[in-house]
Amino acid sequence: MNDPELKELLESYNHQLQEAKVLNLQSWVLNLQCFESLQKQKAKSKLRSLINFKIVAVILGILWISFLGYLLYYSMDMSKIFFVISAAAIIVCTLIAIIVYLNQIALISKINRGENVLKAQETIAHLKLSTINITRILFLQTPFYCTFWWSTEMIVNEPTAFWFISFPIALLFTFAAAWLYKNISIKNVHKKWFRILFNSPEWNSLVKANNFLQEIEEFKKEKF
Amino acid sequence: MGDEMLNEKLTKRISDHEGIIYKICNTYCYNKGDREDLAQEIIYELLKSYHSFNESYKFSTWMYRVALNVAISFYRKSKTNEVISFNETHADCADKNDDSPELEKNLCTLQQFISELKELDKALMLLYLESKSYKEIGEIIGITETNVATKISRIKNNLKQKFSQIN
Fold first, then answer.
1. Of A54, A185, A223, B143, which is least packed with CB atoms within 10 Å of its CB?
2. Separation CA A221–CA B48 (nearest Å)
3. At what angle do helices B59-78 and A46-73 cross, to 10 degrees?
4. Which of B41, B136, B94 lies closest to A40 in space, CA to CA?
5. Cα(A147)–Cα(A86) distance, integer angstroms
6. Would you say B130 and A14 are in contact if contact means Cβ atoms under 8 Å apart?
């Protein structure tokens, strides 16, 4: 096929694409301009669903912090020192995650679709990937779920159970949390352990976002 | 300018460029339901983002940016990015009455080729079909003019190769 033939074919295809009308556009524009319709459409938008997911996470986080804070308030006693330290650590980790989520919600609201395609798509992909930081922080709190029920009496009265069961379990969780904090990163999304651990729609979308970012980087390069 | 006048102006502007929406929907979605959903999302985003439109730029450039951004996100999220098979394409084509079967066959091959392109290459091809200058394509996509030229040339060569393999 020579150049003029290709040009003619592309023009025909362009004409065909434009002619295949999707819907009565003008009536839709008028319809969507009504506030009510806008709200309904807003609820359906894909980014809105991402915001909704994060809002639910923030609400659950606040409820969890409130509950732990309430318990903490009534446990301020040296005899409950392990509980106090564990609950405080969990509160701090959850609080950091909530702040990151709130920051993400603000960023999503600011996404400008009128920016050039690569810039806007990069922002969206980076936003999705920032979820990874929240997960790392949340994993850091896991050892404290093994220590909140410890007490000095327990160590004194049942040393065998403590030093041979409770303590090694907490130690194991501490190493696991530290390892996960270090290794949960974008560079490991393709590893088998990562895929087994995070086989959920949100994580699959992270993998896709990461692949797309690489695609964008590749696209920016000028190859002759 | 009052809200009503602004809405009227925007409605007219979108209607004047409705072809952009049809083209993008037909390029990124292969089933009717998805195309309608995408068209509605694009219109919604245009209405929502209109306040950020800078009048010193061309409306069509801004509209392409918004529509392509929505389409790419929609395409990636909805997972309807299945590539239409040759059989499916040809079955669709067989349903149509056309006086020029050769042209019809070539159009089907072209449709298949474009469906196999990655979403960013699709956007590039779409703008090229519209006869946009490399400068404007670069502004919409966010790459240099040289890069646009290189990529389009590569896509066209691949397309020619595909046709030469078939014929």
1. A223
2. 33
3. 60
4. B41
5. 6
6. yes
Shortest Cα distance, chain B CAs vs residue A182, angstroms: 29
Q: Which residues in chain A have Cβ-Cβ distances shorter than 8 Å to B43?
A: 25, 28-29, 32
Record the tokens describing residue B84, joined without a space.
């239409």
- Main-chain dihedrals φ then ψ at residue B141, nearest 5 degrees: -80, -40
Among B73, B121, B122, B165, the residue to mutate for chain A (most A Cβ within 10 A): B73
Residue B161 near residue B115 (C-beta atoms within 8 A): no
Hey, CA dihedral for A14, A16, A17, A18, is it positive or negative?
Answer: positive
How far apart are the CA of A56 and the nearest CA of chain B, in angstroms? 20
Sign of CA dihedral A105, B49, B18, B132: negative
Residue B83 confidence (pLDDT):
47
pLDDT winner (highest mean) among A38-47, B14-23, B73-82: B14-23
Q: Which residues contact B128 (CB under 8 A, 6 or more apart)?
A: A10, B137, B152, B155
Chain A nearest CA to B134, separation (Å)? 14
DSSP string spanning B103-162? HHHHHHHHHHHHHHS-HHHHHHHHHHHTT--HHHHHHHHTS-HHHHHHHHHHHHHHHHHH
* Best CA proximity match to B140, nearest among A17, A219, A216, A115: A115
